[in-house]
Request: fold
Amino acid sequence: MERDAPANDPARARFQGRRAELDGTRILPAGYIFLKTGQRHVLPEQPPLISALSALPLLALDLKLDLDDPYLRQERPNPWNVGLNFLALNNDDERIFFWGRLPVLLLALLLGYFTYRWARELHGAAAGLMALLLYAFCPTLVAHSGFTSNDVGVACFFTLSLYWLWRFAGEGTWHNLLWAGSLLGCALASKGTAVVLPPVFVALMLLSAWRSPGRDRADGPVAAALPLPFAAEAPRKRLLLSMSALALMFLTAFGVLYTVYLFPADPFAYAREVLLGQMVRDPAYLYYLMGEFRREGWWYYFLAAYVVKTPLPMLLLIPLASWHWLRERRGWFHEVFLLLPALALIAIVSAKGYNVGVRYLIPAYPLLFIFVSRTAPLFTRKRLGVIAGIVLAAWYVSTPMRVHPDYLAYFNELVGGPRHGIEYLDDSNIEWGQHLKRLKRYLDQHRLDKVKLAYFTTGRPEYYAIQAERVQVPALARPPEPGTYIIGAYDLIRAKAYYRVDWLERHRPVDTIGYSIYVFKVP
Reply:
């Protein structure tokens, strides 16, 4: 059922580690078990909210659950074994994953709406539409909105909590306070990287209390009218009131988090399971960046990944928006709610050194879209600006269309496009084991029934009637036997990392399936 590899193979250790190419294989069964039994031991290092939401539609499918599964009965089960056994028991992978992906898609739509709403309230209708366009046609967001993973989910609650905090900092009201606290709790219950939010909340509330009334202006219909709560109070009392409001937000967030965890006896379960669990890493794993391998990773990995995986129009808009902001000299209050959380997230994921994918930066994407939307007036007021805006919009919108359906493997023109992505990044930057159906179609179209398959996936090839001899990563280091080999980008990179064997140099591929699966014919 699971991927064959010797016990001491680093690729095997990676597969049995705390994350995988296609998170749905572990997230959906873990969420279903949590909803049915309240047990979190299948995936304790991941907060349960997104997995539970994803598994919620599965309750209507009358799926089988073997509570006597020996893997499930272990104190610390391997989530991949549990997930694969769950899928094999029900033998309905397509339906399970279809319904399991819908909640993430709905969260992505909600996030898109608030990206538009926040930008419109800050800078007007044109800015709102600009931010929405940037969001809707971002290849990374399009790709991850179709996965059962917690990246888009945490981005949704991350952004929404900051939006309501911004509203509270501008106008107060219990309504804004409770929304900010509740959504902070949802973000913390979605993924460990949301731990950056509490200190960001503290910093933003301190800055808001220090802000002088009337200092900041904005063009949007809401931002321009936002009063400063506690503005009539003395600075010391204003600070005290702001910190009291913050304490109520944190108390609300704790209540939400405690409820999501089903009122555990240990009130510190989150800190023990998630925060400490996030520190566990495979010391033998080699991270990959631009042809090099390191065990400790690179501090600039995520910045480099963002630069090569972001469409060039967006990269051009960031310095333009910064120049526009500094030139207008309208203060910092509104922008700090966008830039401080984004920079804090980049700092914390870079410090963790878990260099496996730009997806860890997804919560920062909507904030940057909203920030650059301030440039919308530059593209609507003068003829030259309108022409430039049309060119940039057409260029940006065409980006995901040019790589359809391989959004995950998108790389921009700076590195030569997605066909050269494997030279710069690997892991979830290129593939997540999601192409089994596509692989089956390729095999049928080319009438290939005897192939050797080295493809890192947590899906089940047998479910799609793929008849292939599975090849372990160590076998790729040995002289190959004659035949047709189908090898995924992840396996190619791991063979190069651990065994110093570069198949792309030794054997020229005869074909590619998308941008992440390579076909070799060895005579």
Observations:
- The beta strands are 287-289, 292-294, 451-454, 468-470, 483-488, 511-513, 517-522.
